[in-house]
Amino acid sequence: MSDSEIIDATKKFAAIIQESDTYKEYLLQREKIKTQPELYDKVNEYRQKNFDLQNESDSEDLFDRMEAFEEEYAKFRENPLVNDFLRAELAFCRMMQEVNVLLAAQIDFE
After folding, report:
1. Is 58 domain-assigned?
2. Residue 47 is part of which domain span?
């Protein structure tokens, strides 16, 4: 199989992912939250802070900081638009992680 055939197959696979219920739900929830730009900005701020916190190398007081972060945003997460979007995004991310793990497991690459 040539490289161009692999690229074509990858494009077809991406189209299959785009037809999944998980991806469609993510898009639906993203469009809903984008109707409120200020709220969407706050969601992006939350996502960035969460990402930064999870990727810090200093784990000495990470649990305490994670707990404080969750407390700080608990009320924010109660908003149905926020919660529905973040749940849909997490479901899509988990699906993509599983795809990546399965793909990597099938390839003998050191």
Report:
1. yes
2. 21-106
Q: Of 95, 82, 91, 76, which Cα lies nearest the Cα of 25?
A: 91
The CA radius of gyration of the chain, in Å to the nearest whole number, is: 18
Alpha carbon 78 to its chain's center: 19
Is 14 within the bounds of a domain? no
- What are the backbone angles phi and psi of residue 19, rounded to the nearest 5°? -90, -5
Per the structure, how many domains does the chain have? 1
Is 47 among the domain residues?
A: yes
pTM above 0.90, yes or no: no
Q: What is the pLDDT of residues 49-86, one digit of tens each?
A: 999 988 886 777 888 888 999 999 999 999 999 999 99
Residues 6+ apart with CB under 8 A from 95: 17, 20, 22, 23
27 closest CA partner among 83, 85, 99: 85
Angstrom CA distances, 30 to 72, 76, 92, 102, stand at 23, 16, 12, 27
